[in-house]
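Help wanted!
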Amino acid sequence: MNRNTNFDILPDRYLFKEIAIRASLYKEQHPDQRLLRMGVGDVSLPLPPAIIEAMHRAVEDLAYSNTFRGYGPEEGYEWLRQAVIDNEYTPLGISLDIDEVFISEGAGSDLGNLSELFDSKNSVAILDPSYPAYMDSSMMAGRKIIPLPCTIENGFVPDLPRQKADIIYLCLPNNPTGTVLRRAELQRWVDYAIDNHSIIIFDAAYEAYIEEDDVPHSIYELDGAQKVAIEVRSFSKSAGFTAVRCGYTVVPKETGLQAMWMRRQCTKYNGTSYVAQRAAMATFTPAGKRGINANLAYYKRTALIIAGGLTALGYEVYGGENAPYIWCKTPDNMTSWDFFDFLLNECQVLCTPGVGFGPSGEGFVRFSAFSQREDSEEALLRIKNGFRETLCVRPNLSR
Amino acid sequence: MNRNTNFDILPDRYLFKEIAIRASLYKEQHPDQRLLRMGVGDVSLPLPPAIIEAMHRAVEDLAYSNTFRGYGPEEGYEWLRQAVIDNEYTPLGISLDIDEVFISEGAGSDLGNLSELFDSKNSVAILDPSYPAYMDSSMMAGRKIIPLPCTIENGFVPDLPRQKADIIYLCLPNNPTGTVLRRAELQRWVDYAIDNHSIIIFDAAYEAYIEEDDVPHSIYELDGAQKVAIEVRSFSKSAGFTAVRCGYTVVPKETGLQAMWMRRQCTKYNGTSYVAQRAAMATFTPAGKRGINANLAYYKRTALIIAGGLTALGYEVYGGENAPYIWCKTPDNMTSWDFFDFLLNECQVLCTPGVGFGPSGEGFVRFSAFSQREDSEEALLRIKNGFRETLCVRPNLSR
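Answered by r_m:
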């Protein structure tokens, strides 16, 4: 047996695992300190009552012979797939076949596993910085990577790849920079994919955070996108399902990949938890929608407060609008990890070092707006006081 | 973009999807007929009260701020991993580190995904017949396959591979034949793996069905196995979790693969549903154990009844002891699919055609013992009468 040596060139630990380990080490050494977690993009508000009730009912179904069910369809129950189309796509004027919608236990798995559909020689273009799973899973598969830098200079809007990219990961609204693309800008990417016979893997995990009119919620709002795009969505950030585990992926038949994905899922996946699918279904009821919209509004306000607070403290910040993430330049040209360590040790605030999302993320950190409001406000206060007390590092207020 | 052409040599549909589609077609055309499902290995008894209560409590945890939780560790909660060790391995005298146990949403996913840890040039030895996901996922990865025939002649006990196999899938008790290996027989496979620097992926999904003393419940009962074996287990068949979705995989550090699997899971998996992990935890409580043992006893008795009934009708059957599957020779040398169609059309009984598990399965079908008792008994009656009424096909009673 020989190991897959593609793993050898990866950083030892996945970014968010590294942060979790550093956080628990710190907690061990400082058991009295309360850490404020603005690192991982994990929600903090409890699930709305309508969703909780649906989950209880689903659990009860499993308690009695006449309502018990075992394996569901690998691609998810028809009622949920139809509800996804009716609630998420039909209102946008997008027409999908029910067989093009695949329910899964989360967008994270699909984003990595989709790579299996393509020839191992195919190259992949990845925004730099971006969610590290695109890069890491592509490296595990031994793919050639084409990085697309997103910097202050280009407003975090990447240029089209200069060389032919076979696969393109796009995440909009972007994690970590919070960038969105207008309709005309995104159309250029679809056109590129059509011209170059590329496939776009479109990560729309944050579409619920879009506030502006001219920003597409789905890539299928663009002409020709059903020929060249797979769209991955999650209930995690929209409905707070990080513990529940449910997402979905749209693979249009026009891509020529729908049957392959069905084959892959039937072979390597045994369907999504029944309780999770019932929970997802409840997000489309009037009471469910009210509940998750209230939570979304809370996170959106928190994002604005964090962005505003950091700006007031003299930081250069991006995002926070149309996205739950604040992309923040480190003070005094500190490295991402130095600023991460400073915030952890001096302020007991967890962020995510920008360089973990790619080399162009060096000199930035990401704050997440998914914490409880009081914690975010407390974090801002600590950051303010942390700098007052440690004169060695402070924001460059001349900027 | 180029598709992964390894998919082109696969059968169009995954075996169990094909069966599900044929069954629903039949139901559409014959809405008044009641199908008796003895095809897919899916449980039918409701979950025991202790597990249902634990799931309700877990749902309640997600309803309130002070108990809410989001993402869990990608490898599963420590309390569940420790409970797995304490309840499943320590009693067998097996010592494992908690970091060697990985909770997942199901054995099916792990069995396929583990392939990613190995060089794509590595060959894979697969029992013929066996659970089709081993073969199909290996074909998707473009691996060279070494089939290991299991026939009446060798008592369904395969010979060791004659050529060097890098990866070996073993499922014991076997799906579909019901075969088990004694301690000394299994030790030969471990020794082979040590000698040939192979890795054994040991599918122990059916270990709860073992009744005999000399049959190992875990491959780690054998000397040296922690160097060469990964063990995959499921709560689906032991605790009826086919809708709940929870399993686990043990990757010993001695294999040199534990850190790689952690890296893979952190990158492409966001952890198992909290509700499912709480449900799994409840299987280790006294009340949970009583409940699942009662269900297991029921399925075991059903297996004996089916095996006995088919034998009385003149069929040549294997399995049904130490396993929930009955491996049945078709009458009059019918092909597997012909007998499948006969049982579906004449008896409204669903089985699984043996050839779907591999070429050596031709001329067999698999019956599953997971149905309700009355359905299994009714199926036996229908099979008896089906032959009486259709003289063209009948079991070869001279055997």
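OP: Thanks! One thing I noticed: Chain B has two domains: 5-47+288-389, 49-285.
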